[in-house]
Amino acid sequence: MYLETMREAYEAYVVYSFFKLMREFLGNKEQAVAKMKRLSERQGRSQAKMLWPCCCAYAWRLDGQFLTRCSLGIFQVAPHADRYMRLLSFACRIPCPMLT
Question: Are strands 47-48 and 60-61 parallel, antiparallel or unpaired?
Fold first, then answer.
């Protein structure tokens, strides 16, 4: 039970960290939408091409709504990472990296 909890906490932390890295790379929402628009114009398509096994799903438009939906999905996972990291840091008496 404890190992599963730790695995879930680590998974949530990794997903949240990757999201933060991508947001730093893309900039704020307006800059990110502008970058995606330039990329879609360069490639000649405005929708993301899905890879297997999701190739039968609907294509996603690369716009502000895409970023908003990605953010909402990440924030459904991220509170768990924050909660688990605080609990772990309290139990081990070490500073929590998510609190800095």
Answer: antiparallel
For helices 29-43 and 64-92, angle between their N-to-C axes, nearest 10 degrees: 130
> Per DSSP, what are the bridge partners of residue 48?
60
Whether the upstream peptide bond of residue 53 has omega within 30° of 0, thus cis, is: yes
Contact status, residue 63 vs residue 32, Cβ threshold 8 Å? no
In this predicted structure, the answer to whether residue 85 has a pLDDT above a threshold of 70 is no
Taking the whole predicted model, whether its pTM rises above 0.85 is answered as no
Q: Measuring CA to CA, how many Å separate 81 from each of 16, 17, 25, 40, 76?
A: 8, 10, 22, 33, 10
Report d(CA 81, CA 74) in Å as an integer.
11
pLDDT in tens, 46-73: 777 777 777 777 777 888 888 888 888 8
Q: Name every residue whose Cβ is closer than 8 Å to that of residue 93 and which is 6 or more positions away in sequence.
A: none
Query: What does DSSP assign to residue 63?
Result: S
